[in-house]
Amino acid sequence: MSDTTTEPGAKRVDPRVLRTRALLRSAALELAAERELTGITIADVAERATVNRATVYQHYSDRDALLLDATEDELTGLVALLARCPLVDGPRRTPSAFVDVFRHIESHVVLYRRMLGPCGSARFLNRLQQLVAEQVAHQLTERSAGPGDGSDVALRAHCAAGAFIGVLRHWLTSPDPVPPETMATGAWHALSSAD
């Protein structure tokens, strides 16, 4: 999440604030790679970032707000990959861009398992739902040409986003590991048949 602005008249953020937030985000991500979210406290983040707890609260209202900010770049990267996929009326064969999405998730599998698992972050889940739904809505809007097509765009977008996240959570929590290529193919067929 960018904290600097280039708009005329906008307030410039002190570079020390940016450095502190970067330290806090990095500490939160390191801790999330090491343990379940329920085992991470503000005190843990402060200690890892070598600041005091009050400093953390100056920047974030709670641990979940910090975790969401820390994962924003990851979510943006995932959605950029999804933007390359034909999510609306896609081909029958699994697009390579969709396989890339699952490969990307696998490369950050610990983070996604922590954030989307049973003890995960509701804010992360909601943000992912919002970003995926926006991408689907964008593709639906680009595709539709006739009147009346836009009334159900939001509903269809959120249905598709929820289905994608459901498939993703199933994959991440499955006791039997499935390669990303295999999962992408199965997910593509499952999501395509749901239309």
Order of helices and strands: HHHHHHHHH
Instruction: Report mean pLDDT, rounded to a whole number.
Output: 89
Describe the sheet with the most strands. none
Counting DSSP H or I runs of 4 or more residues, the number of helices is 9
CA-CA gap between termini: 34 Å
What's the β-strand tally?
A: 0
Strand content: under 5%
Shape: globular
- Based on CA atoms alone, the radius of gyration comes out at 19 Å
Q: What structural category arises from helix and sheet content?
A: mainly alpha
Unreliable residue runs: 1-6
Q: Helicity level, as a percent range?
A: 55-70%
How would you describe what is shown here?
With 195 residues, the protein is mainly alpha-helical. The chain has a domain at 63-193. Helices cover 68% and strands 0% of the residues. It contains 9 helices and no strands. The protein has helices at residues 15-34, 42-49, 53-59, 63-83, 96-107, 109-116, 122-143, 153-173, 180-193. Helix 4 runs parallel beside helix 7. The longest helix is centred in the C-terminal third of the chain and has 22 residues, at 122-143. Mean pLDDT is 89; it is low at 1-6.
Give a concise summary.
This protein has 195 residues and is mainly α. Helix content is 68%, strand content 0%. It has a domain at 63-193.
